[in-house]
Design a protein that fits this description.
Number of helices: 9
Strand order of the largest sheet: 5-4-1-8-9-10-11-12-13-14
Distance between the termini: 36 Å
Oligomer: single chain
CATH class: Alpha Beta
Number of domains: 1
Order of helices and strands: EEEHEHEEEEHEHEHHEEEHHHE
Largest sheet: 10 strands, mixed
Radius of gyration: 18 Å
Helix content: 25-40%
Shape: globular
Strand content: 15-25%
Length: about 325
């Protein structure tokens, strides 16, 4: 994807994001009523979405360069999705049309408090093979980011990245426990959602789960906890960066924005604390805008907030 915000000095860092693509329709309503009901939206967005797409979008908008490896169906919706991504500036050379498959679709309803109802459809008969992935392109990548919606592709990319000693991250969001167990051990950076971490570790306490998973993992282990910020395992204990307080309009893609921002900050040489602070601000500012990933702030907006605010603190 082409740069959409101001970058730091020097050559832009390059990330490959691996995951699912879907055609998404977002509706903004005052409230989501109990069923049965009909409700009229005040706003509507049509966009190409997905966790990997959103992370790549944030990585590029904040100053890096990113491409997506993903699958679509060989249908008109898939062709339109590729065209839309191309028009946004994405590198679509790693997007593959699966013969006989339908492109994923999602309907998302967001209420005035930013809470949402998500109704996704993924073709259960689509060929999951990752044999077509252009793994040689990893030679030009600085970072690999994978999510859990296409486990075969993520696993292939992670294993290839590790063989080439390219740092890699897994977005450990809500997924079947067996999927998480398959991917998390391959990650240098295991960055969970709080709910995903509890699925992986079991139990109902995020800090206890971080202690257990962090002590057993070879790399970084952390969890994004929404308004409570980001917590991670370090030297036998838990550290946390608080998220700034904002007026929430739409939380859709906030976690993905965090991942893209966190990856970029790490590549720019920030330590975990400063990278987490940077990513928390980016994700929080996104939540002040309706439109999913399209609400991602620019690099100038994030840097200005960090320079002017004392609202993002670290708790040990």
């Amino acid at each position: 994807m082409s740069e959409q915000g101001s970058a730091t000095s020097g050559k832009r860092k390059r990330m490959i994001a691996v995951g699912a693509i879907c055609s998404a329709t977002l509706f903004r309503v005052d409230r989501i009523p109990p069923l049965p009901a009909k409700v009229l939206p005040s706003e509507r967005y049509q966009l190409v979405d997905g966790m990997a797409v959103s992370a790549a979008f944030a990585f590029a908008r904040l100053g890096g360069s990113a491409k997506v490896w993903s699958r679509i169906g060989d249908d008109w919706l898939g062709r339109m999705a590729v065209q839309n991504l191309h028009d946004e500036g994405f590198d679509v050379t790693g997007v593959h049309a699966v013969s006989g498959a339908a492109t994923s679709q999602t309907a998302i309803v967001v209420d005035r408090l930013g809470d949402r109802l998500v109704v996704p459809f993924h073709d259960p008969d689509a060929d999951p093979s990752a044999d077509w992935l252009p793994l040689a392109d990893l030679d030009d990548a600085d970072f690999v980011h994978c999510e859990t919606r296409w486990v075969e592709g993520a696993e292939a990319a992670l294993m290839a990245a590790r063989a080439k000693k390219i740092p890699c991250m897994v977005d450990g969001d809500v997924a079947p426990a067996e999927t998480l167990r398959r991917l998390i051990p391959l990650a240098d950076y295991a960055v969970f959602s709080d709910a995903g971490l509890l699925i992986y570790a079991g139990g109902d306490n995020v800090e206890q789960a971080l202690l257990e998973v962090g002590a057993a993992h070879h790399g970084h282990v952390g969890a994004s906890c929404g308004a409570e910020g980001y917590a991670w395992y370090e030297n036998g204990g838990i550290r946390r960066v608080c998220a700034p307080q904002v007026t929430v309009v739409d939380t859709l893609a906030a976690g993905d924005i965090f991942h893209g921002a966190f990856a970029l900050a790490l590549l720019e040489g920030k330590n975990i604390e400063d990278a987490a602070r940077f990513a928390c601000v980016a994700a929080s500012l996104k939540c002040t805008h309706f439109g999913g990933r399209l609400g991602c702030p620019s690099r100038d907006e994030v840097d200005a907030f960090l320079s002017s605010s004392a609202d993002v603190n670290t708790m040990v």
